[in-house]
């Protein structure tokens, strides 16, 4: 499992800067995912998105509720896909 060591919501209101335990860092744009998944719609509000923080054991990014949580390995895969395209 991939472990996050830091997460910071960017001021644009839809990107996260992620640091992983292996030393890699990515910035990932979540706007397409937020638009595609109704369960994440509330993250479209900059004030809500800005509350992103590390979840337990660095396994997730959370916004304070289980419904608003993204797994570290999914975020890493997303960042890697975007980088490759």
Main sheet: strand order? 1-2-3
Low-confidence parts? none
Radius of gyration: 12 Å
Counting DSSP E segments of at least 2 residues, the number of strands comes to 6
SS content category: alpha+beta
Walk me through this protein's architecture.
The protein is α+β, with helices and mostly antiparallel strands and 85 residues long. It contains three helices and six strands. The strands form two sheets. It has a three-stranded antiparallel sheet, with helices on one face. It has a three-stranded antiparallel sheet with strand order 4-5-6. The protein is globular, with a radius of gyration of 12 Å. The mean pLDDT is 91.
List keywords for this structure.
85 residues, globular, single chain, alpha+beta, 3-stranded antiparallel β-sheet
